[in-house]
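Task: sequence design from structure.
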């Protein structure tokens, strides 16, 4: 028994176990992405941005007439990293595959290392890495060409630098933490929550107003240049710092329900409708948990104000991840309520909360285990086994489906699209307009104009100039100067909102071709 204890106390053994789990994560990602990373509309923006950086056009996109337009709505860091990989001859799409596979392995390792640092228990570190690796929403998030994997990695790096500084105040660590925070902001705007986290942690973790304010100033020296440069660039090219509009639009109830179902569906088994049937109960539970986090954060900050925050390593780690969950939730809510009128609470958006939940659950396991009571340790074993079985059951099905079908524009449906095949053979001199312009670009390399919808999804308000834009598109098609490519045309005509939209844009237009998944309008040549 003592030999086992000595082995588990050896950091080389700890690192070996974490490394093997990270390798297993990489193998899992390779298995579920045989056709590359999942591609959605935002993915196309990042990939196009990376290609244009490499082409010397700056962070931009191509319009339907091949004009170069600066990108302001997508933060640039993910595209910059893809472009950096492109220096070695990789196109942005395979570069995103290599990058996110590597990030998944690294994030598995970092999850385990953080928990090991918190508990000093190798088994709990390995368990945390395993839970992270087998969580379907987490590995599925890493299987898209999106920013969340990079954001999670940068969040981990920032937290480790912050923790190192608070325990041994070497200013360069804090400057580096600031630079990483700036990079995170250029990855996802919700990284404002990391600035809040660092500010609160420095106020609570340092003693005396002079040291507190000096520490915050040092952090901002590293944290502000990148965001300021990016926002000034956007103002110069578009007169809008982030292509966002402020306004009050409460999060719809159905979107909140979606978010709750996603969170509890990740954590709890889906058998017998346990999540959906008891959703009101889980809503109350989650609200109470978030309130408890907020109360714990305030209590920990007050404790830090008295100089006691860093005296207990376990308490400090729990506090910092509770603060992470509270700050992320608050900034996300503010963003969706006042900035983004099209709220999305998918797994990828909630992934930072999943990471915080894993760390906090393992902190609870550690606390019970250290009671040294047989009953407490039995509870830990039962809960750990139950959690792994629950997560693995979902993960096996998800991994199998992803391996067979792919995701988004990399899925089998899009790879076999009749409309896409037809677009490849259209006359080159014709301009294209489509309701799936991103799909056309990513699958054919042909840029196209976006078919405007009656409502602006960013504001929820009627789109300005909609009638004029539609009239120009119809004239373009009638004069034989371009094609209107409408995916799922028949389905749209049956929907309440799509019916009037299709009547506006496509009524009486000449049909170039009808296909299983859409219609191309234009003159035959």
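Answer:
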């Amino acid at each position: 028994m003592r030999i086992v204890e000595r082995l588990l106390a050896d950091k080389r053994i700890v690192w070996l176990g974490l490394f093997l789990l990270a390798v297993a994560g990489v193998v899992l990602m390779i298995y579920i992405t045989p056709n590359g990373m999942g591609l959605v509309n935002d993915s196309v923006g990042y990939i196009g941005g990376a290609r244009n950086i490499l082409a010397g056009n700056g962070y931009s996109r191509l319009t339907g007439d091949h004009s170069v337009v600066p990108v302001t709505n997508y933060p640039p860091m993910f595209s910059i990293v893809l472009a950096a990989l492109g220096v070695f001859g990789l196109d942005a799409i395979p570069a995103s595959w290599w990058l996110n596979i590597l990030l998944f392995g690294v994030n598995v390792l970092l999850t385990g290392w953080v928990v090991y640092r918190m508990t000093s228990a190798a088994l709990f570190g390995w368990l945390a890495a395993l839970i992270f690796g087998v969580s379907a929403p987490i590995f599925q998030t890493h299987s898209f060409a999106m920013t969340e994997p990079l954001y999670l990695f940068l969040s981990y790096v920032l937290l480790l630098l912050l923790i190192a500084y608070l325990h041994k105040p070497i200013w360069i660590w804090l400057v580096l933490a600031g630079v990483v925070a700036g990079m995170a902001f250029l990855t996802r705007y919700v990284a404002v929550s990391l600035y809040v986290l660092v500010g609160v942690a420095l106020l609570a973790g340092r003693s005396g107003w002079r040291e507190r304010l000096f520490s915050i100033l040092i952090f901002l020296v590293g944290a502000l240049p990148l965001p300021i440069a990016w926002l000034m660039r956007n103002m110069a090219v578009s007169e809008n710092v982030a292509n966002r509009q402020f306004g009050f639009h409460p999060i719809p109830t159905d979107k909140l329900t979606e978010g709750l179902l996603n969170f509890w569906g990740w954590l709890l088994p889906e058998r017998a409708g346990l999540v959906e049937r008891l959703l009101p109960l889980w809503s109350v539970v989650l609200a109470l948990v978030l309130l408890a986090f907020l109360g714990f954060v305030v209590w920990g900050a007050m404790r830090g104000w008295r100089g006691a925050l860093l005296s207990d390593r376990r308490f400090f780690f729990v506090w910092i991840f509770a603060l992470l969950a509270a700050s992320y939730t608050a900034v996300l809510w503010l963003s969706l309520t006042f900035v983004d009128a099209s709220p999305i609470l998918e797994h990828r958006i909630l992934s930072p909360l999943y990471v915080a939940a894993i760390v906090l659950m393992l902190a609870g396991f550690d606390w019970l285990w250290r009671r040294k009571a047989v009953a407490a340790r039995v509870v830990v074993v039962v809960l750990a086994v139950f959690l792994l079985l629950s997560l693995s059951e979902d993960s096996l099905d998800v991994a199998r489906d992803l391996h067979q079908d792919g995701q988004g524009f990399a899925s089998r449906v899009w790879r076999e699209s009749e409309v896409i095949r037809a677009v490849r053979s259209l006359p080159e001199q014709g301009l294209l307009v489509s309701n799936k312009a991103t799909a056309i670009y990513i699958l054919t390399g042909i840029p196209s104009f976006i078919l405007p919808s009656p409502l602006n999804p960013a504001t929820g308000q009627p789109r300005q100039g909609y009638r004029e834009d539609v009239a120009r598109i119809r004239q373009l098609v009638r004069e034989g100067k371009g094609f209107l490519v409408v995916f799922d045309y028949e389905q749209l005509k049956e929907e309440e909102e799509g019916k009037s939209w299709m009547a506006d844009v496509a009524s009486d237009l000449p049909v170039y071709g009808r296909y299983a998944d859409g219609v191309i309008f234009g003159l035959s040549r």
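The chain is about 70% helix and 5% strand.
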